[in-house]
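Sharing a chain and its predicted structure for anyone who wants a worked example. Both blocks are below, sequence first, tokens second.
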Amino acid sequence: MSARRGPSVARAGSGSAISLAGLAALAVIIVREAELPAGADEAIAEAAGYALLAGSGTREAAQSLVAARQVWLAERSSVAPASLALALAPVLSAVDAVLLPASPDGRDLAPRLAFALDRPLLAGAVRCGDGTVELTRLDDRLSIRVAADGPVVVTVRPGVAGSPPPAVLESVTELPLPAPFLPAGTDAEAEMVLAPEPATVDLAEAKRIVAGGGGVVATDADGGAVMALLAGVAAALGASAGATRVVTDAGWMGYDRQIGTTGVAVTPGLYIAFGISGAAQHIGGVGTPDHVVSVNTDPSCPMTAMADLGIVADAPAVLAGLADRLGVPGSDRARPRARVKGSGHG
């Protein structure tokens, strides 16, 4: 996201907790060195634009937000979850719904915050509002609506709602927090923050994605093996593997790798699409990547039309050839041995 100029930063006084009273919802976002976690703007959008940023570099991070209307900054050098939960609890006690993105820091803080506030935790929400919270289970095959008729803490899954519409940042207020004492060894501290492995990172956080549709699987090929090859190619390129609903419904790749309006919304720097025609449901979750490459036999399909580079060729053959070039074994599993039908499906 590009930075934007926001309002000047004010400082809350001793009545800072009162300034949050009456809010129906507030998103709590953990910031590390001015970096926002995946799903920050989605959680803020669910909280109607109200956000509290806690951590290091909060002022800079606030200028990168898209969905925020009012922001409070709790600058802290440490984001140890137990002490942070104790510090935040008095400030958040008057807020009905406390929302956190289900990022690693959000998942660490949420249960501790729920305990400190003595309220239930609803984990893995995809939608909040109208007194209900929608949760999904069993790889998104089961949707559960839970009545939120009292104060709750909710974690919101990144990449589900997609990019929210931009809001005007009206105010930014510094919110000093106390430093509660905890006996040594009773809190978690991060020794270091490691960059996630592309193969296992949540797709919403992936910087590069290699995705496959039904058109990358030849009629006589093993779909699961082809997708394993695609994942190997992605790993060799330092990218994450993704797929369309056709692929996940066929069982060739897990539902956590599904991109689209019924899957994960992504906005990577590079998106390479093999055999994806570009159905509206898929395109709706692709967002606005910096660069798009489409490999498809149909030069007029939506995926190729939005691509910076369109390779009009047989997707299984190109995937196999790329695997050979990168030294990824198993290219014979994707290379078509017969005429491929519908290599533009996806």
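Comments welcome. The chain has two domains: 9-174, 203-333.
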